Amino acid sequence: MEDSVWQSVLGEIELNVSRASYATWFKNTVPLSTGANELVIGVPNIFAKQQLDVKYKDLIQEALKNSGNNDTKIEFKIHSIITKKRARSSKSIDMDSLAGAPAPSSTDSKSPSKTTKLGLNSKYSFKDFIVGSSNDLAYAACQAIAQSPGTKYNPLFIYGGVGLGKTHLIQAVGNGIIANDSSSRVVYISSEQFVNEFLDSIRYKKKGFSDKYRKADVLIIDDMQFIADKEKTQEEFFHTFNTLHQNNKQIIISSDKPPKSIPTLTERLRSRFEMGMIVDVQPPDFETRCAILEVKASNSGATLDRETVEYLATHVQTNIRELEGSLNQLLALCEMRGLQPDIKVASSLLSSARLRPKHITPKQVVERTARHFQIEIEEIVGPKRDKDIVVPRQIAMYLLRSELHLSFPKVARELGRKDHTTAIHSVEKIEKGMSFDQMIRQHVNEIKERLYA
Amino acid sequence: MQLKVTQENLSKALSIVSRTASSRGTLPILSNVLIRAGKNSITLSATNLELAITTTLKGRVEKEGSITVPAKLMSDFVSGLPKETIDLYQEGSSLIIQASKYKSTVNGTQPDEFPSLPEVSSEANKDKIDSTEFKHTMQKVVFSASSDEARQVLTGVNVRNIDGSIVVAATDSYRLAEGYIGQSSTDYGLIIPAATIQEVLRVVGGAEDDLFMSFDESQVQFNYDNVQIVSRLIDGNYPDYRQLIPADSDTAFTVKKEDFINIAKVSSLFARESAGSITLHVSEESQEVSIVSIASQVGENTSRAGAKVTGSGDVTLNSRYLLDALGAFDSDEISFRFSGKINPCVISGNNPKDKNYTHIIMPLRS
């Protein structure tokens, strides 16, 4: 006998009982073993067992007879869908393992699938990633995941501004996992690609779209924010996410904003993103920038003196991509002209390039801030002291002080205040807020990014 | 079917079973209550396919039979009737409920569609449990269970036999509560759904009757007074949480529960923005524990309470978890210990009632 016997029995029963009854009692049954004259059926719980045993046994026997299995005995067993859990070593107990996140069981993880690393670029590794206070948490989380994917922080959600190393980090996780276990399937994809493939699969009725992602051991999605306004794709991703998470497959997501601040993200995706670990990467501080420059320079076979490094690090502040860009520019120039890269060349180069802070006027700062918070300029410089105006006003003052180095009386005047102590207080307030309030930090960073864009 | 019952008896029985009858499922009949009149007994049953609850009530059976009717309607109607004798009888597929000045006809359904309810038949694994102790302990434990269906195992209460004691525990992976409900030689290793325990707790109480608990490999059954609850068990391995409970800690303090609750409550007002995050500063020098919470938009708060302190330290917690935990204790003095910012905090009390109760909270990363 084969499984098809039970399928034909189900087919017959479906015709004989109400839809609701069928859905409740028969839908989740599976044939467990079939002997010569015996059929063992797995049922989800005691209630189903009792019901099938007592109320539907005759009907099932009848259906069996009709399909030509006259003397078959039937038996019901409670069959749990939960996969077996890995035995844990006693030392590894922490709250995360307490959460019962089981590792992939030995039966399903080592399927004969060959090594796949869809979309990963092997040049990104942990080794080349410079850790500083601005990104150490994200780095630590990624390393933990590379060590034991699917168990610790699932999903991992990394957010931060452009060019701060999100892509580097998440690709490094993928590469790290493959280095540890070459049989794992790591899929890296940008959310835009995901959308396109999804659309293709609908338009051309291509098969295999969901399989590609749902069979991955590790799914890495870059720039998640682009999925936000595409409802159907979100739904598809939601199911993919559930399938993977259910099977304890690692999911890593990067975005430029935290889930809370992506306005059109559906609630169920948002809450799922928030159930794992959310970390941000901040713009690098001065020391980190220096370290990055030194590593990058030595990678391209050049040496820079301390002075030049510090000069570059002071003058390019916004993001790492630009930092790297100006370094490459400097090195290329020196190579072309046969010069030794030093501070003189660097300063001439940077002054010929657009040196941004000088181009920004106080008016622009105020305007940008107002626009960011969607309030009028008249309001921000006006007398109102509503909370939703005061905070933007304080941020504007902070930016005037920190980016344009205006004096406090001048800062106050720019925002229509008479007293410079107001400005001092505001700047201090935001400075303090930046250290523990993620929302303020994010606002400030976003405004800065737009200012310099 | 035809029977006579008092309004009190019927209303009480209906209130016990009708909560379980739910209208959310796929099967409409699950929102009904099954009324069965046997030779000498009247029983009411309801099930949501996670658990089934059956209660017997006193009354006079004039004609045997059975019917199912919508539980909520029936329950609401009967509770509004005056305290007198009520007649119930069947007319076709309808149930007529009649009191002196009230009469209603409720459309019912034939009982054969009602699911057949499982029972634990084996007498092998059966224990008598002190219902007071059960209620007392379970109330302190069950709220720590997780409500996240993605982690099935943690949505239940773990019942284990450790050296002859029945130990119960629940955790949502951020906090954990463990208690003790009696002695037994039965080899327990059950995970009972927290919803089932809540239901048992609703039934148990008042009278000092014994509670009987029996189980087989896939179901557990509770019998108390005239109520029987059968529930599925959660399949899986419960995490070995005991290794999480640290044997000793660097910082420990003892404080009046009232003081502790007060300062935690006040601080939680300023912790709403930060998802309830409050920081405990424990100082050996000043023999004080202070709680700090900061709300960037609102302000901040520092509250102190005198305490007996050994070893100074700081730890950041979710105020809700702390308040939940403190509320569970009967003691007037609370002992709280922890080591550093990331190790579990252990809370215990001095009252004999809390002797075997331990509560653990994981710190927040600050």
Notes on the structure:
The complex is a heterodimer of chains A (453) and B (366). By secondary structure, chain A is α/β, with parallel strands linked by helices. Chain A has helices at 3-16, 19-26, 46-54, 57-66, 95-98, 106-109, 136-147, 166-180, 191-203, 209-214, 231-246, 267-273, 286-299, 306-315, 320-337, 343-352, 362-372, 377-381, 387-404, 408-414, 420-436, 438-452, and strands spanning 30-34, 38-43, 73-78, 116-118, 156-160, 185-190, 218-222, 250-255, 277-281. Chain A folds into 4 domains: 3-78, GMP Synthetase, Chain A, domain 3, CATH 3.30.300; 108-281, Rossmann fold, CATH 3.40.50.300; 286-353, Helicase, Ruva Protein, domain 3, CATH 1.10.8; 359-452, Orthogonal Bundle (Chromosomal Replication Initiator Protein Dnaa, Chain: A). Chain B is α+β, with helices and mostly antiparallel strands. Chain B has 3 domains: 2-113, DNA Polymerase III, Chain A, domain 2; 126-243, DNA Polymerase III, Chain A, domain 2, CATH 3.10.150; 245-361, DNA Polymerase III, Chain A, domain 2 (Roll), CATH 3.10.150.10. In chain B, strands 14-11-12-13-26-25-24-18-22 form a 9-stranded antiparallel beta sheet. In chain B, a hairpin with a 3-residue loop joins strand 15 and strand 16. Classes of the chains: A alpha/beta (453), B alpha+beta (366). The interface between A and B is large, with 39 and 42 residues.
